[in-house]
Amino acid sequence: MIKVVRGNPTPEELAAALAVVRARAAAASAVPSGAPTPRDAWSDPSRIAAHHVPRPGPASWTRTYWPS
């Protein structure tokens, strides 16, 4: 059951919100419960390790996040 707590949505706004909720529920039920979830690319540790480590030296700290 869905209940509007604040505001007065139009029938179109309520239908759009309900469509989003139903689509999310359908997508969640389509994924098997034992299947691994895909990782986001930004949280993948291999993207950080893919760059070379700067060589030691007086200005090496300036090259830490800016690969040359």
Describe the structure.
There is one protein chain. With 68 residues, the protein is mainly alpha-helical. Helices cover 35% and strands 0% of the residues. The termini are far apart.
Core attributes:
68 residues; 2 helices; mainly alpha; elongated
In short:
The protein is an all-alpha fold and 68 residues long. The protein has helices at 11-30, 46-49.
Write the layout of secondary structure elements.
Elements: H1 11-30, H2 46-49
Order of helices and strands: HH
* CA-based shape: elongated
Quick one: biggest sheet? none
Q: Helices and strands: which structural class? A: mainly alpha
pLDDT under 50 segments (min length 5)?
Answer: none
Strand content: under 5%
Summed up, the helix count is 2
Summed over residues and divided by their number, the pLDDT gives a mean of: 77
Specify the helix fraction band.
25-40%
DSSP, total strands: 0
Q: Kindly, what is the distance between the CA atoms of the first and last residues, rounded to a whole number of angstroms? A: 57 Å
Rounded to an integer in angstroms, the radius of gyration calculated over CA atoms is 24 Å
